[in-house]
Amino acid sequence: MEYIVTIEENDSRADRVIRNICRGFSYVFLQKIFRTHRVTINGKKVKASDRVRTGDVIKIFAPFISGTRGGNGVGTTVTSDFGARTVPGAIATKSKENSKSFFHHPSQEQLLASLREMIIFENDDMLAINKPNHLAVQMGTGVSICVETFINTHGDGQCRLVHRLDRETSGVLLVAKTQPMARRLTQLFRENKIHKTYLAVLEGVIKKSGIIDNFLEKSFLGNEERMRIATPRQNPGARRAITHYYPLQTAGKYTLAELKPLTGRKHQLRLHCAGVLHAPILGDAKYGKMATKKRSVAAAAAMITNERVPEAASAASMDFPKGFLFLHAHEIFLEEWNIKITAPLPQHMLQAITFFGKR
């Protein structure tokens, strides 16, 4: 397996990056592949504690993955020198004849057909897809199929992801078709020569444009990983996060906003909206008010910033579609080639814009 380190993972420990990639494997298993020198970075053997840099090429030589039809409803069996274990990796479907689930892997033809429907730009060196919401970018716990599953079937199999979108976020996602282009795009992201624009519906009224410039760090709430606002003096591992925000229109207690991140921290936009603007992105179960979490906006903001904020109106009162994060990666501009790629809005975002009176 080969993986290119993204700008969001710069200066992270190697074992943590690999744990995010291979979430189906245990901590003990991951430590063992480092001890037995089955992990290299840029062709060199590394320790679990070594730091990675943006653009580094990680290769993992350990497991051989073989698809099985798991009657136990768990997923794909992974076998290696360290034994067999089960990780997510198959598609669950229901038989019309009975209610029992069975697992199967889509054919290459099915994956290619699905990928072709998502592609919104392509040339010899790169392509861009309009990622649907709820489709994960990479494999992980509870993920049966992801963007990597699709792109691995495209061309000669050399496609590489160069950045990410949250599973719940829809919109434009760049994919390099060669390793040199993957390195180049990663470098351009680092130099802020690739510009991303998001559209979001916020639960709260934002009247003025502004810039959020602070530091974020990883934390845990129980077993759930999340980001939080940090003070760099007290938290040396905190990383700077910058977002430009522009309110486009308000209606009731909601704002349609344009968000332009200058950095690419994990959950940056979601945390900035909830923890700084006190206007969570509508549908955000992790940082905002959502029926699935039964948590108020005030509680979420208090957890993040220790501040009290007024409660926003519920999504149901405005008849927004439920079960969606109203955050869409609408546009990406590649300065070096003067290429602008726009991802059409999904249905739930179109309904929201109609609510705000924009066509």
Could you give a quick summary of the protein structure above?
The protein is built from 8 helices and 20 strands.
Please characterize this protein's 3D structure.
- The protein has 359 residues and is of the alpha+beta class.
- It has three domains: 1-62, Structural Genomics Hypothetical 15.5 Kd Protein In mrcA-pckA Intergenic Region, Chain A (Roll); 106-191, Pseudouridine synthase, CATH 3.30.2350.10; 196-355, Pseudouridine synthase, CATH 3.30.2350.
- Helix content is 20%, strand content 32%.
- It is built from eight helices and 20 strands.
- The strands form four sheets. Strands 10, 11, 12, 13, 14, 15, 16, 17, 18, 19 and 20 form an eleven-stranded mixed sheet that branches. A four-stranded antiparallel sheet has the order 1-4-2-3, with no helix packed on it. A three-stranded antiparallel sheet has the order 5-6-7, with no helix packed on it.
- Helix 6 crosses helix 7.
- The chain is globular and about 60 Å long.
- Mean pLDDT is 76; it is low at 63-105 and 290-317.
